[in-house]
Amino acid sequence: MTLVIAVTRIAVAEPIDTTDAGRIFQQGRDLAKLGRFDEACELFARSYGLDPALGTAVNLADCLERQGQLRRAWALFDVVARNSQKIQSRAKLARERADALLARLATVVIKVRDPHTSGLEVRIGDRDEAPAAEIHDLIEPRDVELVATAPGRATFKITLHPVAGSTLIAEIPAFVALPGDAALTRRRRSRVYLAGGLGTAGVIGLGVSLGFAIVAKRTYDGAFGDGCRHLPGGVECTAGGAATIDRAGKRADLATGFAIGGALLAGASAAVFFTAPAETVQVTPIATSHELGLGIAGRF
Description:
The protein is of the alpha+beta class and about 300 residues long. The protein has 8 helices and 12 strands. The strands form 3 sheets. Strands 2, 3, 5, 6, 8, 11 and 12 form a 7-stranded mixed sheet that branches. Strands 4-1-7 form a 3-stranded mixed sheet, with no helix packed on it. The longest helix has about 35 residues. The two termini are about 65 Å apart.
């Protein structure tokens, strides 16, 4: 005799439910008798959602176990066993099934170093857990990801490798605070390009200034081979030497002009860059037991 038949006998003793939940439940029982358990599970789940009857819970738990959802099945059998005092046969059946499933599950103990962290969220696989100093739960014996997040803190992530019948202990360390917000900014590219152009022009201007200054110095020095000489009271030049010194002065003036222009362009470049509107680059901090890093997303 199969379990479904045994459960059916238990359920038959209950009054026939004429509500939608009862009708859907009966359809599920009919499909289970035909071995169409996946379809039956969907109907049992719908019925249980409308009316969480214990008889429906037994049938749904049996389906979930067949589908490999051992923890959910255990939870339902446990609920039935603890709440079926008036129907001892059902309570006994549910407790036996729950105990059998317990041996196929692993116990996980999560120790949280700072459970009072603002906005803390802890997730084991696809299930959210209420933050606490120690979190105790049952998980199925397959790899599952433990993730803990908090605003402005580095995300903790690790893969658990539970074994049936064992107890696995994991620890969520104190969270690492990120500097400022968990989003970095970068300057708008059009303004960065403008700043770059101004800066380049400034550098060129300063380079030209240096060139004119060197030429002016050479021209001035050349005047002393073209009719100029140093005297205790100053410089004495012939007409040709004076003209040479005049050319040197004009080139020195050009050097000064380019130097001022280059400095102004460099200053403008800095002003454009540092006042440019910022574009947000989203950053996802990731931490595991082996590494710490940042995942960055944005337009580049």
